[in-house]
């Protein structure tokens, strides 16, 4: 079926370098019968995969379900998590090239409008003066670099075109996807397909097995999976906070975000996932600052746990610090992240997101926005928040030169966890610790096994507590198997999964889920797709020796020196 131009122009935009393309280019895109590679998702993984495929001479199209280009990398996550071994140690290929481009941008004096290079260097600990790459940046700079990469390689991106979720979003012939169908009725045909989204709908609609939530420790012989109430020591309540709407009265009901059914049996699996938030780009520059107003729909009860925590007093713990991680970005901007028991994470409110329909997800995203804007307003204005906190939060507002088309609020929710494929190989804690090393490495991970809290429950003493936060180092880099990117052969033979859906356990994914790693997986997926098309079109049959050689030639880092980084078994 030829994709009809009128269907595209109804609700979708063909996008390149941030602009509508000329009608002649649109026609050339929309009348193509088929592509070598169809990529669903213009995330960091999808963009790198598309550019890498185009450089190999492949016809490729990227279809993005939202209006946002670049995923979390352009969505406010400027404080790049690069791993315990330092810059470049595990990051190679086009991923590291991206951060080189960031560095090159900021070496130009014209890039500094509200701050100098030296002033920024004095505020950040994430950049060495002689560093080759730069791992802190403004969202609009990251987006411009992505747009330039797409334009240079001629990769078309179709925005606002969502896959159908009613069982008709994927056409298959036997074990192969033949087409992806969107809500607007657009049909994308290809030889190989990639799922580069945070939700992994293409993967799910193709009938590929996946998991949502936490596995038990027993599932993959791990120690850090499942319910972890005993190990959850960070970002928890250090003071006694009543969980009931009317303090002391259990029949009054629990406060929002408290799950009375938790926490569950220690180490057992459950349906819960680590919490989501928006990574806010704020500024304290008066002429560029937009105050965060009290949002429509604000209710004090959504923030009652915050107020009660303050009123319970401080301990010698970390509770006396600001309840956010305010990471400095260039030009006096920030990347704001969650900290402490009550902060920007909307704990327990994302369980229906992975398998939800589009309307359900939109409702959850809006609820996260309402909660987080309400939290920020309360921290700056509410009389039950201590004055010194209010004074600090009042200094910050949304950056007027970011997300101009979205009321200066990032449209990208941080989907820290969603569906995870159960593929040919499941990466687990044993891989992260190098207790086993995959022989078909297509890239390295190295960041700590990091799960944010997944639930709030009521302790035996009758107080609220958080559970699920884990931060355990793997002790160095580890190999990610090519088989973690591909489904089981009997389920689908022409699909690669290179973003949130990579085949891994909950706790292993807590390390893999970093944007530089997604870029690595995107590039490696493009190379594998290219080889598969040259042969029989089956991704499971890609010869690893050939794939490895090409990846090394492209600068990917694949190998782990076990003499330098020996296995790092868990403590008894």
- CATH homologous superfamily placement of the domain at 5-74 and 147-212 and 478-553: FAD/NAD(P)-binding domain
- Helix/strand-derived category reads alpha+beta
- What share of the residues lie within helices? 25-40%
Rg estimate, integer Å: 23 Å
Task: Let me know the number of strands.
Answer: 22
CATH architecture of the domain at 5-74 and 147-212 and 478-553: 3-Layer(bba) Sandwich
Helix segment tally? 14
Shape, per Cα inertia axes: globular
**Poorly predicted residue ranges:** 1-13, 16-29
For the sheet with most strands, the description reads: 9 strands, mixed
- What is the highest CATH level, the class of the domain at 5-74 and 147-212 and 478-553? Alpha Beta
Strand-residue fraction?
15-25%
CATH topology of the domain at 5-74 and 147-212 and 478-553: FAD/NAD(P)-binding domain
Mean pLDDT: 92
Report how far apart the termini are: 59 Å
Structural topology:
Blueprint: H1 5-11, E1 13-16, E2 19-20, H2 23-30, E3 35-40, H3 44-55, E4 60-63, H4 93-106, H5 117-121, H6 139-153, E5 157-159, E6 170-173, E7 176-181, E8 187-195, H7 201-205, E9 210-211, E10 282-283, E11 289-290, H8 304-311, E12 324-329, E13 333-338, H9 358-381, H10 387-393, E14 397-399, E15 420-421, H11 429-432, E16 441-445, E17 449-451, E18 455-458, E19 464-467, E20 470-472, E21 478-481, E22 495-497, H12 506-512, H13 515-534, H14 544-553
Parallel strand pairs: 3-4, 3-8, 4-5, 8-22
Antiparallel strand pairs: 1-2, 1-5, 6-7, 7-8, 9-15, 10-14, 11-14, 12-13, 16-21, 17-20, 18-19
């Amino acid at each position: 079926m030829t994709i009809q131009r009128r269907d595209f122009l109804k609700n979708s935009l063909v996008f390149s370098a941030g602009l509508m393309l000329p009608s002649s280019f649109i026609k050339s895109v929309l009348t193509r019968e088929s592509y070598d590679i169809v990529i669903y998702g213009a995330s960091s993984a999808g963009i790198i995969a598309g550019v890498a495929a185009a450089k190999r001479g492949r016809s490729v199209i990227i279809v993005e379900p939202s209006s946002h280009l670049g995923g979390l990398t352009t969505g406010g996550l400027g404080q790049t998590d690069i791993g315990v071994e330092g810059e470049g140690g595990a990051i190679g290929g086009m991923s590291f090239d991206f951060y080189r481009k960031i560095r090159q941008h900021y070496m130009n004096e014209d890039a500094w409008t509200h701050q100098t290079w030296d002033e920024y260097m004095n505020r950040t600990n994430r950049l060495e003066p002689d560093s080759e790459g730069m791992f802190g940046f403004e969202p609009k700079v990251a987006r411009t670099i992505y747009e330039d990469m797409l334009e240079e390689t001629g990769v078309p991106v179709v925005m606002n075109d969502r896959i159908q979720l009613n069982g008709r979003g994927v056409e298959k012939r036997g074990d192969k996807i033949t087409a992806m169908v969107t809500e607007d009725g657009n049909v994308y045909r290809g030889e190989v397909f990639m799922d580069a989204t945070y939700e992994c709908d293409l993967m799910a609609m193709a009938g590929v097995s996946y998991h949502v939530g936490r596995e038990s420790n027993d599932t993959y012989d791990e120690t850090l999976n499942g319910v972890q109430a005993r190990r959850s020591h960070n970002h928890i309540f250090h003071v006694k906070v009543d969980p009931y709407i009317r303090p002391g009265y259990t029949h009054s009901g629990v406060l929002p975000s408290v799950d009375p059914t938790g926490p569950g049996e220690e180490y057992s699996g459950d349906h819960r996932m680590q919490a989501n938030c928006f990574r806010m780009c704020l500024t304290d520059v008066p002429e560029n600052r937009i105050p965060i107003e009290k949002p429509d729909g604000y209710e004090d009860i959504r923030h009652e746990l915050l107020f009660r925590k303050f009123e319970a007093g401080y301990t010698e713990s970390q509770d006396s610090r600001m309840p956010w991680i305010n990471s400095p970005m260039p030009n006096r901007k920030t990347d704001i992240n969650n900290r402490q028991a009550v902060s920007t994470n909307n704990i327990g409110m994302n369980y229906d997101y992975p398998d939800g329909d589009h309307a359900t997800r939109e409702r959850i995203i809006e609820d996260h926005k309402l909660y987080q804007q309400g939290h920020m307003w309360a921290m700056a204005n509410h009389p039950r928040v201590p004055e010194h906190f209010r004074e600090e939060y009042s200094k910050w507002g949304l950056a007027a030169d970011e997300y101009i088309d979205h009321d200066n609020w990032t449209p990208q929710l941080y989907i820290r966890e969603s569906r995870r494929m159960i593929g040919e190989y499941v990466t687990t804690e044993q891989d992260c610790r190098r207790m086993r090393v995959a022989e078909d490495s297509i890239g390295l991970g190295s960041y700590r096994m990091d799960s944010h809290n997944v639930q709030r429950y009521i302790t035996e003493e009758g107080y609220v507590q958080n559970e699920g936060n884990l931060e355990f180092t793997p002790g160095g880099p580890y190999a990610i198997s090519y088989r973690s990117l591909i489904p089981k052969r009997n389920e689908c033979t022409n699909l690669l999964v290179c973003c949130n859906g990579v085949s891994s356990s909950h706790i292993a994914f807590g390390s893999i889920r970093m944007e530089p790693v997604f870029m690595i997986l995107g590039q490696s997926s493009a190379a594998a797709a290219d080889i598969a098309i040259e042969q029989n079109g089956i991704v499971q049959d890609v010869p690893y020796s050939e794939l490895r050689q090409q990846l090394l030639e492209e600068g990917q880092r694949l190998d782990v020196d076990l003499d330098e980084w020996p296995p790092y078994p868990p403590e008894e």
